[in-house]
Amino acid sequence: MNHLARTLRIGCIQLKVCANKTENVARALNKIREAKLKGAEIVSLPECFNSLYGTSYFPEYAEPIPGETTNLLSQIAKELEIIVIGGTIPERDGDKLFNTATVWGKSGELLAKYRKMHLFDIDIPNEITFKESDSLSAGDGLAMIDVKDFKIGIGICYDIRFEELAKLYRKQGCNMLVYPGAFNMKTGPLHWELLARSRANDNQLFTALISPARDINASYVAYGHSCVVDPWGKVLYMAESDEELFVLDLDLDIADKVRSNIPIYSQRRVDVYDTVEKK
């Protein structure tokens, strides 16, 4: 067995995001270069890495895919021979807008595209009200990539609250889930780590959550705290709130061990219940 195929070095970029799209993208490209210098084989950017986060901003920053931002992601992936999970950008497709993640391969090819399936519509009186559906449409398909022996499923932020989506990915053979996300200062402290560990533990896989850095002057203040959790539900690393790049080595032997020691997947009572993909 080639154990190198069962390890993966991932870079996570907790990016500082401002109002200038060109500056945001340039900053992201520089951080991807840094990750490559640290030996990363795959790197992820956060949700809305080229755009301010807010329903009023999405139409202003939206682009088609392929387009200005994603063409640059394709180019950097090819130049550095690194796999790039391009966080998310507001995508314009006809008269609709989506919150979309793209994944670019080492030859610059588009490996996957995922549109946020569960839109962030919440109302916590006197604390935060946000309704993505005011400007965004919801996606309805899964997106997976194969990297060495890793099979990685993609979700976006609010999607992590829906265990059914993670279960569908587990049923497709995923051993890692990546969620570019931007929790806020109410839900972040309460649920960010809890959900990362829960999805990892529920499905006995790695989870990576990648947030923008915190900007206390922004209209929407991101929590930060990008993290990676192993299949035991153990936090391998968690950033603070400022801009940060971190690189971790992941080993699939850990997933094999926990799945063997606690074989919940084969013990599910599918005669009583199941999670089924309809589309």
Q: State the major sheet.
A: 7 strands, mixed
Q: Could you report the average pLDDT, rounded to the nearest whole number?
A: 96
State the helical fraction.
Answer: 25-40%
N-to-C SSE string, H for helix and E for strand:
EHEHHEEEEEEEEHEHEEEEHH
Beta content comes to: 25-35%
List unreliable stretches of 5+ residues. Answer: none
Inertia-based shape: globular
Distance between the terminal alpha carbons, to the nearest Å?
36 Å
Q: Counting H and I runs of at least 4 residues, what is the number of helices?
A: 7
- Radius of gyration (CA) equals 18 Å
Number of strands: 15
Q: Strand pairing plus helix content: what structural class?
A: alpha/beta
What is the secondary structure topology, with strand pairs?
Blueprint: E1 7-14, H1 21-37, E2 42-44, H2 58-61, H3 68-80, E3 83-85, E4 89-93, E5 96-104, E6 110-115, E7 121-124, E8 128-131, E9 144-147, E10 150-154, H4 163-171, E11 176-180, H5 187-203, E12 206-210, E13 227-229, E14 235-238, E15 244-251, H6 252-261, H7 264-267
Parallel strand pairs: 1-2, 2-3, 10-11, 11-12
Antiparallel strand pairs: 1-15, 3-5, 4-5, 5-6, 7-8, 9-10, 12-13, 13-14
Write structural notes for this entry.
The chain has 279 residues and is an alpha/beta fold. It has helices at 21-37, 58-61, 68-80, 163-171, 187-203, 252-261, 264-267, and strands spanning 7-14, 42-44, 83-85, 89-93, 96-104, 110-115, 121-124, 128-131, 144-147, 150-154, 176-180, 206-210, 227-229, 235-238, 244-251. The strands form three sheets. Strands 1, 2, 3, 4, 5, 6 and 15 form a seven-stranded mixed beta sheet that branches. It has a six-stranded mixed beta sheet with strand order 9-10-11-12-13-14, covered by helices on one side. The radius of gyration is 18 Å and the shape is globular.
